[in-house]
Write a structure and sequence with these properties.
By secondary structure, the chain is α+β, with helices and mostly antiparallel strands. The protein has helices at residues 3-12, 20-31, 36-46, 50-59, 79-83, 86-97, 139-147, and strands at 71-76, 110-115, 127-129, 132-134. 25% of the residues are buried.
């Protein structure tokens, strides 16, 4: 992410440090993660110590300081999904993408995470991609859904 893009986002909030979290959210939204250079630029522009910016970026789960894929894949492994075969869905996604939970593929296409509940237990097992919920998943259906995000 270039300096001009970061500056544009910071300037949108009039360079006010009280908007640090919102600024970081917007940078991550455009870039899929928060590179160290971006954190340094935000620190300089807001006149906030870099350690404070890094603390915020690493404290909240919403932020990532490592590259993430364009598509965020979440597999529910909560009780309702687990008893309906969530592990088979997870295995299928791992096979199709070549990554395990917590990882991102080398092409930065997919990032995979497991979650304990997505709040739609009646649809289990559930897979969420980029905020879109796919319910009543089966291994064959999982592969088809992933193909829509290539």
């Amino acid at each position: 992410m270039d300096k001009d893009s970061i500056d544009r986002i910071v300037d949108k909030y009039h360079g006010e440090a009280s908007y640090l979290i919102q600024i970081l959210l917007e940078i991550q939204s455009e870039n899929n993660w928060l590179p160290k250079e971006a954190l340094k630029r935000v620190s300089d522009k807001l006149d906030v110590p870099l350690t404070r910016v890094q603390h915020i970026a690493t404290f909240y789960k919403a932020f990532s300081v490592v590259p993430k894929g364009r598509h965020k894949v979440h597999i529910c492994v909560g009780t309702a999904c687990h008893v309906r075969g969530a592990s088979r869905i997870l295995d299928t996604v791992e096979e199709a993408t070549g990554i395990k939970p917590g990882e991102t593929d080398l092409e930065l296409k997919y990032s995979l995470e497991t979650v304990n509940c997505l709040g739609c237990c009646a649809l289990g097992p559930v897979m969420e991609i980029d905020g879109k919920v796919h319910g009543k998943m089966a291994p064959g259906k999982t592969s088809d859904v992933l193909k829509n995000y290539e």
